[in-house]
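Researcher: Batch entry, complex prediction.
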Amino acid sequence: DTAVSQTPKYLVTQMGNDKSIKCEQNLGHDTMYWYKQDSKKFLKIMFSYNNKELIINETVPNRFSPKSPDKAHLNLHINSLELGDSAVYFCASSPGQGNSPLHFGNGTRLTVT
Amino acid sequence: RKEVEQDPGPFNVPEGATVAFNCTYSNSASQSFFWYRQDCRKEPKLLMSVYSSGNEDGRFTAQLNRASQYISLLIRDSKLSDSATYLCVVTRAGGFKTIFGAGTRLFVKA
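Model: Structure tokens for the complex:
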């Protein structure tokens, strides 16, 4: 029983397409996140939701739209995919206000051709 | 300047060696500190939290110096299985923004 699960694990698509990544956590956590890890392995926060409310939006292009239907789910929709969007996207969750560590999903490797 | 800076790697050490990683952070209001480990093509996993008094977990010792805004991780008696990337992680005051350092790669060889 996976704590933070994301689908799909791999996603290969062409420039200009629209795609979604789904994330679910069964830990009962209040806060969920999306991180992007680029080819240089740098992990950068994109979004954070607390109890379905967006609280962090880090200068991410408008083509990226997160959606949290309930506090156990945080999905990421990407419009008009670009080559530079190729990366590993990690979903994570935590119990609350940052003094607790993050629990990560095992990542979605997105390749845009 | 990045908010969290780590030693550039990679570190190549023999089994049994002691190795130390350093990390500095720029936001003095940072409130929580962690070391994570990331294996190749895997997700980051918590190694240990870092407390002001310093803390130890088996072969791993973490230290925090708030005055110098400096965090360290010491690994004693390195094992082959310690080979990974070690990420220094800081959470800003307010609690919802967790910042990762770029990571330090460790290779332990037989």
